[in-house]
Write a structure and sequence with these properties.
heterodimer; A: about 170 residues; Alpha-Beta Plaits; two-stranded antiparallel ribbon; about 20% helix; B: about 325 residues; about 70% helix; globular
Chain lengths: ~170, ~325
């Protein structure tokens, strides 16, 4: 019995010479991976247009219901959100919105330092969420690959898309 | 003139040093525990976090000094002072170095035992006066623990007393010039060390305040500086027991090259570190295990040690 007590005392004592596991946070920032799930941003496609097509899938996927948005349509046929609002005081940084997004528009970033003195300031509007770049996916542009017709790109003109089939030509 | 000043310097020097070291030990312990758990411990306030003590003191002084209405108020207020007073009195007999020490008492060892026994009243009365079931249970445990551990605490020291032929701590130190008593009295050292842990209610024998059974044991109802006094008392008793073990078993101030005070402080701080290491490494036994261990293992060991030492001493006469 005594031997095991002495052994555990020795094993604990040896930790005096091991490195601390602590990261002394404000002085010393921990490494956060690029795919860390922190503050949410809305990205733009390589041409600088908003990627978000206001499909509402992120709002549906969001467990605490902190995303709200409204769809509008431009004259050129593009869909975009009239407003896009994330209440970060509710957000749990789960990343389900990012997974749900069909256009890579909504992305999570390695930034978690979002302290505010006023709770209302935790509600981010579209202007606060939009960033100028494409985020983690540099070359992806939804309207270039999707079949949706917009001004200057008709059906069948997207990347790797075959021209639409005239159904009446199929009467064999 | 110096006949007045030297004792006065001794008295206040030791008093202030003891209280300061006990306060500093609150920081030292947390720092060491931190290192042993792979974290830095309190290191933000002042250099190395040394001023943490000051921060804690300020906090304790400005906390509401709450006395529950259902408590036995005079006893409740007085109880924490007992442990601190008796532990400080205990330091009076510790011979730090040939010239340093408050009194040269020829019953120094008995005086220490008396003081450490009285200190238990603090815990017991604190537990009783709180009029709270957890506190009462803690106080009861403290009482029972003391009754069973005090017995062999005294007995384990009798070997040392027999070998040096004196209760005077200075003479006990001087009797160790040939060799420290830890070698012939190793069993006595072990028994006294364990009893000392139980006496100062340190882990693994801190059953009177076992956090996860009794919330905080005897000091559940205490707050502010009253709680602080219990705490300082506990750290004082750790230092006191360590310095007594140094005196009795590790040759006190004796040692080559370095000045006597340094040797004494080195040995004592090593023992204090051992106290903290035990807290870091060992789990708390169950209450009945503690009692069983005391009566069935430690007491016979102390008695056997006493018998053997006496026999050998008679044989050699």
């Amino acid at each position: 019995m005594l031997a095991s007590q002495l052994r555990s005392m020795w094993l604990v004592f040896r930790h005096l010479f091991t490195r601390n596991a602590t990261v002394q946070y404000p002085d010393e920032k921990p490494y956060l991976a690029p795919r860390y799930r922190g503050r949410i941003v809305l990205t733009r496609d390589p041409d600088g247009d908003e990627r978000c097509v206001a499909c509402n899938l992120c709002a549906v996927a969001c467990p605490p219901d902190c995303i709200s948005l409204q769809k509008t349509e431009d004259e050129d046929g593009r869909w975009r959100p009239a407003y896009f609002r994330i209440n970060f005081s509710r957000c749990i940084m789960c990343g389900l919105c990012e997974d749900a997004c069909p256009t890579y528009a909504i992305q999570l970033t390695p930034d978690f330092e979002m302290c505010e003195y006023d709770r209302q300031n935790m509600v981010y509007e579209k202007e606060d969420l939009l960033i100028s770049g494409p985020g983690k996916y540099h070359d992806y542009s939804f309207y270039r690959v999707a079949g949706k017709a917009i001004d200057g790109k008709d059906k069948g003109q997207a990347q790797k898309e075959a021209p639409p089939i005239d159904v009446k030509s199929l009467n064999l | 003139m110096s006949a007045v000043w030297i004792p006065l310097a001794n008295i206040f020097g030791i008093l202030i040093a003891a209280v300061l070291l006990a306060a500093l030990l609150t920081w030292g312990e947390r720092r060491l525990l931190g290192f042993w758990q792979d974290r830095p411990g309190p290191n933000r306030v002042g250099p190395f976090g040394l001023l943490q003590v000051v921060a804690d003191m300020i906090k304790l002084f400005f906390k509401e000094d709450f006395v529950p209405r259902f408590a036995d108020i005079p006893v409740f207020v007085l109880a924490p002072t007992v442990v601190m007073a008796t532990m400080l009195l205990g330091f009076a007999v510790i011979p730090v170095a040939p010239q340093i020490g408050v009194i040269d008492l020829n019953v120094g060892l008995l005086f220490f035992l008396a003081m450490s026994s009285i200190a238990v009243y603090s815990v017991m009365l604190g537990g009783y006066a709180s009029n709270n079931k957890y506190a009462l249970l803690g106080g009861l445990r403290a009482g029972a623990q003391t009754v069973s551990y005090e017995v062999f605490m005294g007995l384990s020291l009798m070997g040392v007393v027999m070998m040096s032929g004196s209760f005077n701590l200075r003479e006990i130190v001087q009797a160790q010039t040939e060799g420290w008593f830890i070698i012939p009295q190793f069993v006595g050292f072990l028994v006294f060390f364990i009893a000392g842990i139980a006496e100062s209610h340190r882990l693994p024998f801190d059953l009177p305040e076992a956090e996860h059974e009794l919330t905080a044991g005897f000091h559940t109802e205490y707050s502010g500086m009253k709680f602080g006094m219990f705490f300082v008392g506990e750290y004082l008793s750790v230092i006191l027991i360590s310095s007594l073990i140094t005196t009795l078993f590790l040759g006190g101030w004796l040692g080559p090259w370095l000045p006597p005070v340094v040797w004494f402080c080195l040995k004592t701080s090593f023992l204090v570190m051992l106290f903290i290491l035990m807290r870091a490494a060992l789990p708390r036994p169950r209450y009945d295990q503690l009692m069983q261990f005391g009566w069935k293992v430690m007491l016979p060991l102390a008695l056997a040690n006493l018998l053997l030492t006496g026999g050998i001493l008679l044989w050699n006469q």
